[in-house]
Amino acid sequence: MPVAVWTCHPFPVLAAAGPLAENRPGPGSMHDLATKSDGDLARTVMSAEAGPRRAEEAELCRRLAPRVRLYGLRHLRDEDAAGELVQRVLLLTLEKLRAGAVREPERIASFVLGAARLTAQTLRRATRREEPLDESRERPDVPPGAGPEPFARERLAGCLGELAERERTVVVLTYFQEQSTSEIASALGLKDGNVRVIRHRAIGRLRHCLGLQAGAVA
Amino acid sequence: MSEACLQPLSMEDLVDYERGELTPAASDRIEEHFFACGDCARRLETISRVGAGVADLVREGRLSASVTVRLLDDARERGVRLRSYRLAPGESVACTAGPTDDFVVIRLVVKVDEGESVDVASEVQDLETGEAWSQTTEDVAVDRRGGEVVYAFAGDRVRSLPRTRWTMRAHVHGPRGERQLGPYILDHTPWKQLSTRP
Lengths: 218, 198
Known about the structure:
heterodimer
């Protein structure tokens, strides 16, 4: 299998998780991998007799990295910290899978969520104590393509321009100023529920305008 | 998983989760779902991307919107360059957009009561050609704390204007009927014309 399958986490993840005996592909094509469940992929990676499965690991990382990142953004409120969380959690997941130490591989998502919760706590504690992150460990390197692609600014600006004035205001106060629903409601003389409805409607219209409705995002 | 989600999370829940406005129990439920569901994780990601894109556009001075006074203060603290004009009803002001202004902010004093909404009607005249046009922005957000409509215009947009006079009026609607406030008059001169005047 060519190295190009590592769209999510290239060699450093593997190197940190343990040496590869050989670059052995999984049994199917990339199309086959895409149709497999997360649990199927985890089971394949765990199967000791098969040895390391680079393609399956890559596919698992490709799927899980955005979910861990979203968790990190929500709980750590910082892009760099969320990136650090992705690295640590995926590294731990690969290590545990290869060691056969995941009890229920068919519930790999739960394992990863648990790891994300614990690791986020560790990162928060380290930040509070202003401890430097452990740089002695080999660190996986997420290429730029692993994060979400930015929108074309002009397109997003155009879509925002099509919103009703009040919708645009609520969206700006929410995402630039990071104001809560209650704060926005108080500032604009609205009820909390109204702000939620306006924001939800605005985001729905933006997703539609940007072509990001269900199924439209790779 | 590659198959479509049979019980997708609602957009409301995803937005509230992303904003950190759910109870811990509800937040846990959302996380358990989207960690096991690629579809919902992608929908959550689009919300996150839209939010990041909006914040970037404001930082870059590329988005015109009615906002609040507090947002202006926050924006200044983050290095956004603002040129601000505040007008009470009946006042007029000479205004411009400097070459480095990210936003030109027009603050219209509009005292409103609870339950009242505001439309802002603008008559615009090109002072070089005499051409005139009008526009109305309905249901403009009012900063209730300061009693102002705070409109942040993208600097580039204002810099592209010729010499113009903007005559604005606020139409206030509410349970007790309608009233009009204004006019608020803005005499805009391009920066270059100001700097070349004797």
